[in-house]
Amino acid sequence: CTGGILSLSTDTAAVPAAALVKMINGVTYLFLQPLRVGSATLTSALYGLSGKTATVVYDTNSQYDPAHDSTGSTFTLDGSGQFSDTLGSNSDDYQVKIYTIQ
User: Fold this and answer.
1) Which of 5, 10, 57, 88 could form a disulfide with 39 if both were Cys (CB 3.0 to 4.6 A apart)?
2) Nearest Cα residue to 54 out of 39, 36, 66, 42
3) What's the CA dihedral at 95, 16, 40, 4 to 10 degrees?
4) Planar angle of CA 14, 36, 86, nearest 5 degrees
5) In contact, 41 and 10? CB cutoff 8 Å
């Protein structure tokens, strides 16, 4: 199954974000990062992947703020292929998360 990002939105206009979708050996990866200091809830919409599960496989907090590491957290993509996650909370500015979508 192939999928690609349809849209990325943020609940905080002052904290835009970047996203990248890659498929490697049949696994879809989503990379997310806020582009400014601050916390924001990012909503990603992935075409053709509704009902799949996004699992955090890398969180920069694992190195820089282990108490707030979210590696292993899962999110179910809704019927529109969307899910939301908060990045940059706990003053973890520019936090990067990588998800597998399966």
Assistant:
1) 88
2) 42
3) -80
4) 80
5) yes
